[in-house]
Amino acid sequence: MTSQVSSPAEQAEPTEQQGGPALAGGQQPDGGAKEVRRLDRVIIRFAGDSGDGMQLTGDRFTSETASFGNDLSTLPNFPAEIRAPAGTLPGVSSFQLHFADHDILTPGDAPDVLVAMNPAALKANLADLPPGAEIIVNTDEFTKRPMAKVGYATSPLEDGSLEAWRVHPVPLTTLTVEALKDFGLSRKEAERSKNMFALGLLSWMYHRPTEGTEAFLRKKFAKKPQIAEANVAAFRAGWNFGETTEDFAVSYEVAPATSAFNTGTYRNISGNLALAYGLIAASQQADLPLYLGSYPITPASDILHELSRHKNFGVRSFQAEDEIAGIGAALGAAFGGSLAVTTTSGPGVALKSETIGLAVSLELPLLVVDIQRGGPSTGLPTKTEQADLLQAMYGRNGEAPVPVVAPCTPADCFDAALEAARIALTWRTPVFLLSDGYLANGSEPWRIPDVADLPDLRVQFATAPNHTLADGTEVFWPYKRDPHTLARPWAVPGTAGLEHRIGGIEKQDGSGNISYDPANHELMVRTRQAKIDGITVPDVAVDDPHGARTLVLGWGSTFGPITAAVRRLRAEGVAVAQAHLRHLNPFPANLGQVLAAYDKVVIPEMNLGQLATLIRAKYLVDARSHTQVNGMPFKAEQLALALKEAIDD
């Protein structure tokens, strides 16, 4: 699960194409014991009201699955409102987890198991369930008023409308309250633990470890030991219910994905967490303090929260009063000699655009992290999109070129942060890092790297005059450039003899003095562009084992769905090539040659064709767009069908 496309050997692994658990064998019941079936993969979705703790439940199940050694991919999905009206469709929160005994790339197209905590959760998710899927439903919530809120005139548990699925009616609330009757809690307090009962039941069904969850609950509620033990009791009660009830006659095993991982130490990690760790690693490798100037915004705020915890690594985090103040402080820190970062989403980028242009003019290293979300304006704050690419490329006044880097998986956010820092520090430029909500909130196993393998990012500050005037005087010219990178020297304020002007007005080449000379302005504009064009980035790798005539080109978080779709097509005997871009400005040097080698180029994007627009303009290639802007990632099955149609057209 790296930034590279899959090798032919990897494609021999099981694909993600069947809907429903794939049986890999079985074990017959021994005496009175329940049957245990082995599966190669499962997709589970927890769904309930936004106050039901579905994100916590999914996160805990994921953590235990990771510790067990399965490969996994997750998709949290929750409302934008802090507290949407209880029991309504807009208030439904869900968490989907795909785990397997082999290499997987997506959270899965459709759940094999849905845990529905109320009527709204059932109605909001039912259309995604394939026939034969299992539904575990909290029957206590299927009373007249909750059903009326979502338009159920009769109970779907009784009117035959769920006959296509295997329904397990479980009175989760009642069972939880009964399990906690000796804890002295009010009914309302006891009911809050029903998510732990559900977690215990699913942990029994899929043989998940339990020790980690119990330790987590005791730590989380350490200041409220009664609540901690009540949650542990509810969790155990759910496990015991699965063990003893006749409604669940079968449990399932999904073996560890031993063949999916290289040797090493792994942990489950989300994209935002990986990105935060990558920024810390970059500051350590550069031997520079890390400064974050940020304003909270969904879905980027987790990076601010995480970096604020790491003062021991020299991280300084500043929660500003607004987006403009956040990037202004970060740019000031860059001038002062820090590895400077500002984090935001699309609406914040719009506010930061003038200061990004100032950073282009000052030619200082600055990382602008954009965790993209649905737009325009406030748009869909908790849904994913890839629609800020053209904004990152051109969303500033004047000619203000900025490099653009995009990670492709949650774990890859770590490496992308290091790469963005390498470019910013080496070429003295602001750099856009384009992640998105799907990567930010999703998670997967991450191989913890050896520090010795991380790149050396150390830089040399200017310490002495670098230019001699005609009269022999030695002076410091802040815009005298490195002949290889065209980067200007980086002088820390307070260094004697290196005083120089800063500001947004055009500079004279070399001296940095204010200049309105037309010829000088043209020289500076072209020089700044040449600096970006000259950034060295790796060639794009092409995965084409069968000599295909059609290339699927992607960028960012579409990597997982595209790769899963390509695997499906190849399993059906369809020849198709795949390439994925990390560097969007500048493009890899070999990209034009790669595109010219294919009759057809298809570009799937979660926008209306922004990369396709750039590819068409630069390479004059008739790139075909396949687009989606519904706030959700591509489904591999639907994408495979679209690619097949494009190939056959």
UniProtKB/TrEMBL annotation:
Pyruvate/ketoisovalerate oxidoreductase catalytic domain: residues covered:
51-238
Q: Does the keyword Repressor apply?
A: no
Entry keywords, A to Z: Oxidoreductase
Region: Disordered, residue numbers: 1-33
Checking Pfam families in the record gives: PFOR_II, POR, POR_N
Biased composition of type Low complexity is found at 17-31
Tell me which residues make up the Pyruvate:ferredoxin oxidoreductase core domain: 548-619
Protein's recorded name: 2-oxoacid:acceptor oxidoreductase subunit alpha
The species this protein was found in: Streptomyces pactum
Q: Which InterPro entries does the protein's record reference? A: 2-oxoacid/accept_OxRdtase_asu, PFOR_II, Pyruvate:ferred/Flavod_OxRd, Pyrv/ketoisovalerate_OxRed_cat, Pyrv_Fd/Flavodoxin_OxRdtase_N, Pyrv_flavodox_OxRed_cen, THDP-binding, Transketo_C/PFOR_II
Q: Where do the Pyruvate flavodoxin/ferredoxin oxidoreductase pyrimidine binding domain residues begin and end?
A: 293-508
